[in-house]
Amino acid sequence: MAGSTWGRRAALGLMAAGCTPGRPPAQPHGPSLRAAARARGLVFGTAAQAALLRQDAALRALVAAEAEVLVPEYEAKWGPVQPREGEWNLAPLQELASFAAGAGQRLRGHCLVWHEGNPDWLLAALAEGPARARRVMEDHFRALLGATAPVMREWDVVNEMIANPPGSDNPSPTPGDLRDTPWLRALGPGYVELALRTARQADRTLRLTLNDYGMEADTPWAAEKRARLLRLVRALLDRGAPLDAIGLQAHLQMREPFRPEPFIAFLRELRSLGLSVSLTELDVREPDLLAPGIAERDALMAAYLEQVVRAAIEGGVRTVITWGLTDRDSWLVSMPAVARPDGAATRGHPYDAELRPKPFRDALLRAFG
Ligand code: 9MR
User: Fold this and answer.
1) Spacing, Cα 46 to ligand 1 middle (Å)
2) Number of structural domains in the chain
């Protein structure tokens, strides 16, 4: 693969044509999210998609102005990056790297091992048993981490490995702390440790993260999910596994109650184990319309969001990344299972569908300080 060439070019900051940040239609007054976070010693970032940036100058300008970190929303996942065994598609990642270099941004890697987004050949390989599974993991990590090394120094090594407890959305049909996935079936419960060790071996100075969702709310199932993650993390650290950080996705749900105390205690527990903790995919779902008017809904959501982000910062979180900047481009709109069935607007991001800043953004600014 031409990985090292790509890496060098991206590291030099070559800009792909068409990826030049443009001028936003309605630049908000006052500091950017990025500057406000920075002033407080925090980092703000967003997920982004190369194809969306390519076609929209206004979005490019917003992303360049607001974010200090970019996460490929799609482009670094197994399916897009290695659609057939040994066949690599790094062009969209290169585009994002060029964009990020032009905007003075860092890239965060997402993700190496996940139960979704896997090409058929990988699922077939995993079904062949542990030896083959280990080999494809090693080959993929070595190639991808090698190619991206100059521009991505942090990766979600395993994404969403914790099983959903009873009572939560989509509860796990199997017992145990780990989610039933093709990786678990191929390699057994040691697959998380194996993935961390394989990543560390591929690049000794990468920052290695485990990333998961459903840990923020004040519900029995979120409490159980937090306990499951803590058990996994303690066991990994006891075995000397290379783990640096935890990513909490923070796909928040307005229907779920939130209380700062248990969340802050959880964050402090993780940090006392020597790990840093980030919010990696922040957005807010409003499955039940909370008020008839947009202004009231936005105000309620902003208040909820501010409380969570303040608690996160109090618990030691230093990086806050939203899963996209605008309501227009979000998975909350495009994924049938989570889109609003009544057609009401989804408003879980800092900017609305016309790229106008919203109370969500003001809430972030307030939480930053
Ligand atoms: O938002 C992402 C969407 O565009 C992709 O189609 C999808 C599958 O690759 O993944 C979405 O991002 C997910 C993330 O990778 C992991 N946490 C949940 C996110 C929303 O589904």
Assistant:
1) 13
2) 1
Residue 20 lies in a domain: no
Computed from CA positions of residues 108, 270, 160, 146, in that sequence, does the dihedral angle turn out positive or negative? positive
Tell me, what CATH number does 244's domain have? Answer: 3.20.20.80
Regarding the beta carbon of 260 and ligand 1, being less than 6 Å apart is answered no
Establish whether the linkage from the previous residue to 19 is cis, with ω within 30° of 0.
no
Query: What are the angstrom distances between the C-alpha of 343 and each of 5, 325, 332, 333?
Result: 46, 20, 12, 10
C-alpha span between 51 and 95 (Å, rounded): 9
Taking the CA of residue 330 as reference, the ligand 1 atom at the shortest distance is 1
Indicate whether 14 belongs to any domain.
Answer: no
pLDDT tens per residue, range 206-240: 999 999 999 999 999 999 999 999 999 999 999 99
Cβ(327)–Cβ(352) under 8 Å? yes
**Domain containing 307: what range?**
4-9+34-368
Q: What confidence score (pLDDT) does residue 26 get?
A: 54
State if residue 249 touches ligand 1 by the CB under 6 angstroms criterion: yes
- CA 49, distance to chain mean position in Å, is 13
Give the strand pairing for 276-285 and 207-212: unpaired
Q: What is the structure's pLDDT at 14?
A: 24
Residue 88 lies in a domain: yes
Residues of the chain short of pLDDT 50, as ranges, are 1-20, 22-25
